[in-house]
Amino acid sequence: MALNTSLVQLNTFSKSLSAKLKKIGLFSVQNLLFYLPFRYEDYSKVLTIANLTPGEQVTIKAQISAIAVKRGWKYSKMFTEAIAEDETGKIKLMWFGQPFIAKVLKMGDVAYFSGIVKDGKLGLNMVNPVYEKDTPPSPPLLRGGKQNDTLVKVGNRIHTARIVPIYHTTEKLTQKQLRYLISQVIGLATEIKEWLPEEFLESADLVPLSEAIRGIHFPEDETDLVQAQKRLKFGEIFILQLRAEMIRQSLKRANAPIISFQEKAVKEFVAKLPFELTAPQKVASWEILKDLNKNEPMNRLLEGDVGSGKTVVAGLALYNTVLNGYQGVIMAPTEILARQHFESLKQILGDNVSLALLTRSQFTVYNLQFTKNFQFSNDKLSKQKIVELIKNGEIDVVVGTHSLLSDDVQFKHLGLAVVDEQHRFGVEQRKILREKAGGGRLNPHFLSMTATPIPRSFALLLYGDLDLSIINQLPVGRKPIKTRVVEPYNRQKAYEFIKEQVKLGRQVFVICPLIESSVIPTESRDEWSLPAGEAGDPSTSLRYARDDKSDEKKTVMSEYKKLSEEIFPDLKVAYLHGKLPARGGSALGGKPSKESVMEAFRNGETNILVSTSVIEVGVNIPNASVMMIEGAERFGLAQLHQFRGRVGRAEHQSYCLLFSNTENEKALARLEFFQNNIDGFKVAEYDLETRGPGEVYGTAQSGLGNFKLATLKDIKLIKLARDLVRDIDFNQYPIFKEKVKEWEKGVHLE
Ligand code: ADP
Ligand code: MG
């Protein structure tokens, strides 16, 4: 038997068992060893019967003196009752729903029983205790295999009288079966190779991997378990840190243009702004300007809650870049946002900076007349011509979507690249931009901006290579947005409220989870429905189906129809979703496009905009004061926070109204937390705790999909790992490069 021995080769394997194991991804001995418990029961306290106290979780060793199957008087269900004795006393044992027990445990059998002691009418008892007969270890599993001495080391008992591992399992594969199998191969843990060099084990005070694997399954005691967990968590964290360090070092080696601080002009720029920069905006700007002034590429993440004013900070950096004779680019995730950045940069960059907007379907330039070789009128430029102007260096700042990366755009000398509403520049994006940058072998400086507040521990873990600037304060004069979960019977009141707001001149967003009528077929709706208040977290589509039945469909098209025809016939209502064409048409006159709808809303020509989540990130409509969200439980809190951030962007008191028909308690608790917390960082932390990083940031994005044990709470280990990888010489440790590659492929087998 070896690590790569296939499980079907083991003696006791029936076909059906190996099919079940396959279901949970277990094919080989190695798979079994790395199939980690997700929790433990502590049955390590072994007591005699006379010493038991009610409420305690314990193990007893006792002999069965009577056992019988009985019929309960209440539900006439069968149960097994037994009396067990040791030299100090007797105890009653009962099992429900396990009719086979009387066949396994016979009178006279000596066994261990683990569970919680209860105080019954007729003395102490235990309900559904885990039992394990006192027999010698079973013979080896594999044909011709040798006796497994680790089992002896773990004290023979695997289900009782110890800290017992609990695994995720699948239908008809019991904890005991799985635990038994793992106990049969655990001796092979000694063959697992350690990949962490000795000196790292030492400085982080870690046990070797093989020890950790043994200890994570069958710990001798609490300390042993903690040691095992520490080693395994560290391994996971360390690989992420190595990866970040590799990126950091390769960037450090690269050269970037030195973009010096044009103090006088930048000060004038700031003075001309219609507002005073907040203190954290000033600090962030200063940090960025300092980075630009170095000959290694900046690699910075600018984090700031929605509405905290990141755009102007980016604008300032771009301006300083242009003053140095370099080009800048800013990329947004959607066309709507690219357009918006274009419009605001037009305002803040002033008359001396030429700008181009270039997305798949939109292209235009601004201020071109101030460039040297102006010979065409702005609005007659073809896309191709704009691309040419960029290549010749006649456009100072290019605004676009990520499609800029795939288009044949080429810069003359790109100095600064900004990406908005993304957690970071990916390795791949950086490579592409470097190739497009022009200017010889110089790398551009990189600035990522995000409004998804990432807790520091998380940023440290994943973005150890990034420098972080945080804007943690909103501009003065903003009134906190009033958030309310509205009871269904108050819907009418909410509509009245919206009417009042519109009368005051304000505008309103209505967000719906879907575009058109539900994807769930009507005829099978009952099958999809779930009982109210069901525990667990049913998938959102299931949840929606149930709501769907009890209320009208919340889709953009149905809500648009209802609001424009029945509720607000006197107001101007428009709709927006991702499937609309990018441009052309008009918001109210049929065939609307994303551009025409946003334009009309921005100009105040429409009062109410019914939209899907396309409106989610970044959209800036200072006059909007109400954000109404239908089917609110269908969105993650981070996303709801983004929606909420679409209002309250000016001096008007703003409101976020959440509608939901869910009775799911978890979902309601989430919404209530959201209602009571306006701080984006708090919301993000809560979201991370309740849903996990994979859900919040996307599994791939978060990189935590590969984590089995480590969590964001392991901040000490995260810091330790980061300190240990700093300035490491990768040539000295080829294994580290391999590990990172493996991780990137998502293999991660340790
Ligand atoms: P976000 O950080 O969410 O991208 P924006 O950059 O879109 O936020 O800014 C939101 C709004 O706040 C814009 O209308 C912007 O002009 C305004 N703003 C930015 N900084 C300030 C400030 N210091 N004082 C007042 N308003 C500001
Ligand atoms: Mg923004």
Automatic annotation (TrEMBL):
GO biological process: DNA repair
Keyword NADP: no
Residues annotated as domain Helicase C-terminal: 514-689
Domain Helicase ATP-binding: 291-471
PROSITE patterns xref list: HELICASE_ATP_BIND_1, HELICASE_CTER
Superkingdom as given in the UniProt entry: Bacteria
Keywords assigned by UniProt, alphabetized: ATP-binding, DNA damage, DNA repair, DNA-binding, Helicase, Hydrolase, Nucleotide-binding
InterPro entries membership: DEAD/DEAH_box_helicase_dom, Helicase_ATP-bd, Helicase_C-like, NA-bd_OB-fold, P-loop_NTPase, RecG/Mfd, RecG_dom3_C, RecG_wedge
Chain residue ranges for the region called Disordered: 526-548
GO molecular-function terms, A-Z: ATP binding; DNA binding; DNA helicase activity; hydrolase activity
A Pfam family reported for this protein in Swiss-Prot or TrEMBL: RecG_wedge
Annotated NCBIfam families: PRK10917.1-3
Official protein name in the record: Probable DNA 3'-5' helicase RecG
Organism: Candidatus Magasanikbacteria bacterium GW2011_GWC2_37_14
Origin organism lineage: Bacteria, Candidatus Magasanikiibacteriota
